[in-house]
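Input chain follows. Return structure tokens only.
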Amino acid sequence: MRQATYNIEWFANLFDRNDNLIVDDSWSGRHNVTKAQQVEAIAKVLTAVDADAMLIVEAPNSGRTQDTIRALQSFAEAFELRTSHAVMGFANDTHQELALLYDPDVLKVRHDPVAGDRSAPRFNDVFNIDLDIDATEDHVRFSKPPMELAAQTSAGSEFRLIGVHLKSKAPHGAGSRDEAIRISIANRRKQLAQAVWLSRRVRQHIADDEQVILLGDLNDGPGLDEFENLFGRSSVEILLQAGLFDPHADGTDPTKSTARFARKGGQYLEALLDYVMVSENLRSQRPVWRIWHPYNDPGCHSNPDLQQALLTASDHFPVTLDIEL
């Protein structure tokens, strides 16, 4: 079975208010890329990856007239993808939903949020934690609540799938450098609190002897920014310490990156942000990870059409896990 995660930048911009796909020469949210170009590129990437289940990070919006599942299933139908069904968890108000495209002949899934207790409440609830050691509890919410699914393969194997998109907001509205630093630290502290919340839920599932796959965009990793030294560990490390594993997560290989952002002067910043983590009881199931990087992955680099599609579709690249389930 192939599990995958893919952050598709500005996917929501490719649909109108009634979830009709917009395929024309108007500009997409991506720089110098039309909607038609991005639509075609996304379809090529999804077809090439050919996952049994694909977490779409920044999926189309759900709102007053829009519906994430309807949009994704229409996209799959338009391009005859075998991942013809979609499921999502709690909708949010950011226009960046979390949803899973999957092959119904291979997998059965349902949204199954766990109520938990006060130490690890349901992901659309409030998490109480003392963030700054002042003996006063802070109330933390997810802007994009993780999607928690109960999954069963056609062979009868059951596992928990948790899709995530952690976000440490930029210091918008800061009037000075000191204020920007203060806001950045507060935002980073909140993101780490969300990682603690996630890790407690993961520990609960592992304690119940469940198989767990956590995947998505964590916007974090060892050595990613200057605030790691301040807090001592990253969101990724918090999740690894909960009993999860991803071979790329130690950050020791500089060629492993899952995102590529344009900078001024024609330069690019590369970062390892996207992961597919598994619980220890899945490591014996012959897992194989792959980052579909247009330059660093030999299979993508040797296929010019796929390479260009990856560069056009998004500023992130898919990560896949092949595993016997």
